[in-house]
Amino acid sequence: MSDPARKLEPITLEEFDSMDFGDRRAELIDGEVVVAQAFPSARHGQVAASLVVALFQAIRAAEADCRVETGTGIDIRLEADFRLGPDVMVRCGDGDGDPVLVVEVLSPSNSASEMLRKLRAYQAVESITDILFLEQDEHYAQHWSRRPGEPWGAPVYLIGPDAMVRIARFGAEIGLADIYRQALRDR
């Protein structure tokens, strides 16, 4: 006879902080621990790095009080807790600043459910005005945006090397060709 199915209770940010994942990266998604199964691929890293450079240049040109970050996290408290580590994040304002843009470079291991839960969490953060999901293997992005304090609109689907990502906050216009140039050059 098998054991009856049990629903695991969500854990809190405080419980997550007390856990040790060794050298593995972990996120807390809707109270559920998700441990990375492998390091990101080279292509994943190249897409993220190219976007960091483009965002840095756009922010500097706009003389915006913003900073580009990688490897940093964001805590979000909803009905269950989140600690997410977007691939790229832009913060604006004094001190550490508030997150205004989060970017996830999608890997084959990302599930649709995981990404929908992350999207819902990012959209709950009042200061975030732009969310960008980038495929790692093709010129394709999904971009959600809003003006501060307004509801989220439908995503804009960007397809092909001629498509442009537009971030109104600091006037960025970044071509997918620039983001993917290094990652897809051998294809």
Could you walk me through the main structural features you see in this protein, from its secondary elements to its overall organization?
- With 187 residues, the chain is α+β, with helices and mostly antiparallel strands.
- The protein has a domain at 39-70 and 84-180: tt1808, chain A.
- Helix content is 23%, strand content 31%.
- It is built from 4 helices and 12 strands, in the order H-E-E-H-E-E-E-E-E-H-E-E-E-E-E-H.
- A 6-stranded mixed β-sheet has the order 3-6-7-8-9-10, with helices on both faces.
Number of strands: 12
CATH topology of the domain at 39-70 and 84-180, by name, is: tt1808, chain A
Largest sheet, strands/sense/barrel:
6 strands, mixed
Kindly state the percentage of residues in helix.
10-25%
Taking pLDDT < 50 over at least 5 consecutive residues as the criterion, the unreliable ranges are: none
Report how far the terminal alpha carbons are from each other.
52 Å
- Average of the residue pLDDT scores: 90
What is the CA-atom radius of gyration, in angstroms?
Answer: 17 Å
Structural class: alpha+beta
Q: What percentage of amino acids are in beta strands?
A: 25-35%
Overall 3D form: globular
Please name the fourth-level CATH homologous superfamily of the domain at 39-70 and 84-180: tt1808, chain A
What is the CATH class of the domain at 39-70 and 84-180? Alpha Beta
One letter per element, helices H and strands E, the order comes to: HEEHEEEEEHEEEEEH
Q: Under the CATH scheme, which architecture of the domain at 39-70 and 84-180 would be assigned?
A: Alpha-Beta Complex
Work out the helix count: 4
Strand order of the largest sheet: 3-6-7-8-9-10
